[in-house]
Amino acid sequence: MILLFTMIELSALGIALIVYARHALDYESIAIDGSSITVEKSIGGKTERHEFNTRWMQLKQEEDGKRLIRIEQSDKELPIGIFVPLDARAQFFNDLRQQIRHEA
Predict the structure, then answer these.
(1) What pTM, to 2 d.p., does this model score?
(2) Closest CA to 69 of 43, 47, 95, 34
(3) For site-directed labelling of 73, which of 4, 32, 44, 62 has its Cα 20 to 30 A away?
């Protein structure tokens, strides 16, 4: 009976470690080069790359509890800043907006 519970606990621990390992290397990278902004996200081993023209895009901050930042351009929309702490997102939004205006 003890062996059964030990196997269940070890299985649960193994699953938790696999889930943690999948997300341990998650990242979000934002690069601004002249009139283009490139956002690269890697979440759960899946990497996505998005490019926006700074002249045509809009930067918006949600007003809900998460206060995520969104980049919108025509029919394309991308939330960013998920790894930025909640209390630092307003400053990140202001810094990003200022940098985009400076580069454009």
Answers:
(1) 0.76
(2) 95
(3) 44
Are the CB atoms for 100 and 32 separated by under 8 Å? yes
Tokens of 36: 């283009």
Number of domain units in the chain: 1
Residue 49 lies in a domain: yes
In a domain, 96, yes or no: yes
Residues 16-64 pLDDT 10s: 998 888 888 899 999 998 889 999 999 988 999 999 999 999 999 887 7
Tell me whether residue 39 is in a domain.
Answer: yes
Nearest to 90 by CA among 74, 69, 76, 71: 69
